[in-house]
Amino acid sequence: MAMQKVQGYVKGFFSEGHKRTIVAKKNIAATFLIKGVSILTSLLLVPLTIHYVNPTEFGIWLTMSSFLTWFAFFDIGFGNGLKNKLAEAIALKDFELAKIYVSTTYFMLIMISAGLLSVFFIANIFLDWTKVLNAPVHLAGELKSLVVIIFSVFAVQFVLQLLNVVIAAMQRTFISSIIGLIGNLLTLVIIYVLSKTTSGSLIYLGLAISLTPLVIFMIFSIILYRGSYKAFAPSLKMVRFKYARDLMTLGLKFFVIQVGLIFFYNADNLIITNVISPSAVTSYNIAFKYFSVITMVCSIVMAPIWPAFTEAHAKGDQEWIRLTVNRLLKFCLIILIGGAVMLALSAIVYKFWVGKEIVIPFSLSLALYAFTVINSYRTVFCFYLNGIGKITLELYIIVSAGLLNIPLGIYMGKLWGTTGVVFATTLLCLVCGVIETIQYKKLINQRATGIWNK
User: Distance between CA 315 and CA 307 in Å, rounded?
Assistant: First the structure.
């Protein structure tokens, strides 16, 4: 009897409510199952990688790989622009326009990728990576080769990962999770084999971590664009430069926001390695990865919501938006409590996970807990504003926060070490969240004017 009640509840949960909500629920449930394994794989990868190289080299790798995150933002906003425009076209059942948007975006990203790679090869002639990364001099030759490899691979993946945007616009985010899971599992296997057959090498590590997702994206692109996404498959014949202007109008705002995010979210590694040391980056990233479990859970729940907000706004369904935001805020309370439990257990988990070699102060864990909880809260409103294209105010506050984060992070880092760097970002994140909450309330109650309505 109890089992029948549970089955009835589960069946009702996935079949009752608005069609848009049902799709989101199914995506979230499927993604949770997939991400659970992916998170475990990602956690196992950290100690395996540290023991394959060493804490200092691992910190250097993390800092270098963070540069790729920076360059990933240089799609000039085409990715996020496509997400909104494609979701709108699908909501209005204009599939020809959808194919035009996809084809045009792929073509533009190929051009951007070629330009970025050319600029990198020229700049790389003059760069001393041991100084940029505060690395030992004896690694100079290895670092020079490594950056050429990972930036070249990235240039191709930069285009191929646009598949994730198409998947998100189709509200099938669990497929992206499958892609990530396969990539993580394959990377784990390769690094395990390397640890048994070779001595620690940053070159081998870079090849394993960078080439694996590239291959996975290539395989899934072929499968999906020849199968269920055939109607949206990119085609040179469907490239229309006049539609690039539509994508750019919204996309340029997203691009400026992304540049701000580089300094807001992704500068901490560089600040820590230069103000403190490369080995401190390792301690920071272990704690960051631990609390990123919160971020991963949050992204699983919220990833399908952005395109759903776009669709609901296009159809004028404000009531669904209001109801969904309220539900997500209740979810943030669960995040707050769950994160507090993780904080209380952090010292035990670190010891079990990476051993006694790497010391992570409780203050750093506290700072990262505060950051991830506040960031999860503001993501609710960011996704709403991004989904409906009201991002001018967000552009201003993110760029301002990004510009402030580096000097504030350096100042607080000199005072309180790595913990100070994280608290600087957390403080700015809180200010952004307050402003975004106010804008949401003005928009949903139709009282937004001026900058609040742009």
Answer: 12
Would residue 11 count as lying in a domain?
no
> Is residue 9 a part of any domain in this protein?
no
pLDDT digits (tens, 9 = 90+) for 134-191: 777 877 778 888 888 888 888 888 899 889 888 887 877 778 778 888 888 888 888 8
Which structural domain, as residue segments, surrounds residue 196? 17-453
* Structural domains in the chain (count): 1
pTM of the full predicted structure? 0.67
Position 4 in a domain: no
Residue 10 lies in a domain: no
